[in-house]
Amino acid sequence: MDRNHWYEAGLDHVWLPYTQMKVAPPPLAVARTEGCRIVLADGRELIDGIASWWTACHGYNHQHIRQAVERQLSVMPHVMFGGLVHEQALTLAQRLTALLPGDLDRVFFSESGSVAVEIAMKMAQQYWINRGEPNKTKFVTFKGGYHGDTTGAMAVSDPDAGMHDVFRGLLPEHVIIDLPADAASADALELVLARHAERIAGLMIEPLVQGAGGMRFHDAATLQRLRAVADRCGALLIFDEIFTGFGRTGTMFACEQAGVIPDIIMLSKALTGGTLPLAATVARKHVFEAFWSDDPRKALMHGPTYMANALASAAANASLDLFEREPRLERVKAMSEQMARELAPCGAMPGVRDVRVRGAIGVVELERIGDLHALRARFVAEGVFIRPFGDIIYLTPAFTIESEEVARLTGAIVKVVGEGIARGP
What we know:
Blueprint: H1 3-11, E1 30-34, E2 37-40, E3 45-48, H2 51-54, H3 63-75, H4 87-99, E4 104-110, H5 113-130, E5 138-142, H6 151-155, E6 175-177, H7 183-196, E7 200-205, E8 209-210, E9 216-217, H8 220-233, E10 236-240, E11 264-267, E12 279-284, H9 285-289, H10 310-325, H11 328-343, E13 352-358, E14 361-366, H12 372-381, E15 384-385, E16 392-395, H13 403-419
Parallel strand pairs: 3-15, 5-6, 5-7, 7-10, 10-11
Antiparallel strand pairs: 1-2, 2-3, 4-12, 8-9, 11-12, 13-14, 14-16
Helix pairs in contact: 3-10, 4-10, 11-13
């Protein structure tokens, strides 16, 4: 079946994400992927600068992951996780808990990051119910934060920094305040918690980098303040490492850089190396123990249908193999230094508010972007796939990308920003 047939026949029957389809240009048709390249149906080849929404950390079609999935497919693609378990999931749970700090040692699997967030919220609320404090149902989250698109996840995301302001008033209300990045904002957080302590189940944050809310950075001291405040007010500390986990910020998990152990952590995206959907909500021992009871009502009553899918678990185990065998974090360090050096010229250009790099994340923040569609198309014309949003142009490449490919990405950004097309008329 030729490209035009499947493209034209199918496009009228899909609903694309984050897209006003009446006015948006048609999406690019992809024929295949390989390494850090996207090959379009018309033969053009693009260097991927965002690793398919930050998932393909080892590049596309990595042989080791592909072979692991093929082996598992020949044995058992899936079996329900209710009353049954299988080797891939149990092995993965053991490996994840060995990598995570402290006593984060109970893994609850699901299929997506948003669902992992919902599970963490449900887990935190029932933790307090089981301990006899049922009024603790609210969460403190932070401006610039984004935790997903399902209802519960939307409710703890910043509506002004994200895409959910249209639902304001329909969602459960939580407490969304400034990050405690300095003494003044830390004092403000203390006052809020003192006022609402009997109702706060947990504090939730994306550690070190708030991703989809604008690639906003904060430091390790901010996370240390949150740990201390959570302990003082008797709330659980919850880290959303769906974006930051698996090397993206320069360490395997962002929390390592702060020496902070959250009570619950969520993982997804790069967990399977960008091959199959899988997520994990991991709890510390004391959280799990609140559910350990002779009373069936104290069990966590949640169970995604494809929970701990065997194919996805096999992919995740293979991805962890690659982190063990190959110098991924060393490559992230080198990439970070290269992006910082090569994006620096943007800092002196008109309309540029900030240039910042952390780990394998490079950001050029503009005062404004005039026409996102035109800007994205301009990057495609340069042979790269970069998808700006809000007022930022950013890079989150695969860790296997070659230095020359990074230079193509950074060069395209410097060129296009220098042309002024990003600012528009």
